[in-house]
Predict the 3D structure of the following.
Amino acid sequence: GESVGLHLPTLSVQEGDNSIINCAYSNSASDYFIWYKQESGKGPQFIIDIRSNMDKRQGQRVTVLLNKTVKHLSLQIAATQPGDSAVYFCAESTPFYNQGGKLIFGQGTELSVKP
Amino acid sequence: NAGVTQTPKFQVLKTGQSMTLQCAQDMNHNSMYWYRQDPGMGLRLIYYSASEGTTDKGEVPNGYNVSRLNKREFSLRLESAAPSQTSVYFCASSDRDRGLEKLFFGSGTQLSVL
């Protein structure tokens, strides 16, 4: 089956620096990608999503970049804050008519922000 | 607005015992899901329900059953719990059938099977 994976399992950054979390996906049919943040003891929270007809999307302090040529997804967090410390998951979805459009999650990257 | 509510938050079972995890959403979503989360494994889909009255197996359905009681509620049942089912369970919902795949998650149920 297809899988979604992360290049780095842990990332430690200094407060105020920018963070980049990477994700590789292998299903070329995936057309929707999403990032979630999960704080300890809580459920995953939506951060930002992007469809395959786009290569960049920006939110508040976050940017998602999609490179379909190399099947790579990244999440950039600007001016990282201690409150950004969490595990970040990427997920992919195929179109509804193919495999039911279910979200497949990667293993996660733990982001640690040093004050 | 409560979103997705799961009960209980914590549960300890002995091998062979049964239990039902409850989930309810108040966002009028058609689709609901049960995931389990294990260390280093990410979130794995157990079962999902695309709409009221339908359920389908996900990636890891063995040992579980589900019931979509109505549009709001989707329960997960362990008939005979096994230590391998020790995990954190998350319920989620979405409006996938309207092209909105974003999942909203509950806060999780931490289950230990001894």
